[in-house]
Amino acid sequence: MTAWVFLNLRFAKGGWFGPYESALLQAVQKYESIAEAAKAVDMNYQRAWNNIRVMNKQFGAVIVGRRGRGGGAHLTPKGEKLLKRYLKIEREFHQVFAKELRYIGKFAGDDPNAPVSIPRRAKAENK
């Protein structure tokens, strides 16, 4: 399949969660470091920290925790649940609409037999 859909969740009270936040959380989970996670998703360290602060505030809980001073980072249980649910929604969406996504890809002139190129934002998912 060559067509991709990225889900951006917008909340009635304000705030959002989407592919950039998902990729950042996946990278934190993989590398256990905000600096390494930021590099993995082509984001500067300050922007990664800002995104984490925004997530912590909008969800009213710590999503990414730190392991002391300079000791790395980890997803908290709430962060793990948030990421797991978002990825489930994304995966199920693509399963339900696979036929339509292939059609739109062909309609756009994509080769349905071409190897799938994972968009940069989604690469953190591949562990």
Explain this structure.
With 127 residues, the protein is mainly alpha-helical. It has a single domain, classed as Arc Repressor Mutant, subunit A (Orthogonal Bundle), CATH 1.10.10. It contains five helices and four strands. A two-stranded antiparallel ribbon has the order 1-2. A two-stranded antiparallel sheet has the order 3-4. Helix 1 packs across helix 2 and helix 1 packs across helix 4. The longest helix is centred in the last third of the chain and has 20 residues. The C terminus is likely disordered.
Structural class: mainly alpha
Radius of gyration: 16 Å
Number of helices: 5
CATH topology: Arc Repressor Mutant, subunit A
Q: Got a strand count?
A: 4
Question: Span from first to last CA?
Answer: 21 Å
The unreliable regions are 122-127
Strand content: 5-15%
User: What CATH architecture would you give?
Assistant: Orthogonal Bundle
Tell me, what is the CATH class?
Answer: Mainly Alpha
Please name the fourth-level CATH homologous superfamily. Answer: Winged helix-like DNA-binding domain superfamily/Winged helix DNA-binding domain
Question: Major beta sheet, specifics?
Answer: 2 strands, antiparallel
Average the pLDDT over all residues and give the rounded result: 84
Q: What percent of the residues sit in helical stretches (DSSP H or I)? A: 40-55%
Could you list some keywords that capture this structure?
127 residues, mainly alpha, Arc Repressor Mutant, subunit A, two-stranded antiparallel ribbon, two-stranded antiparallel sheet, elongated, disordered C terminus
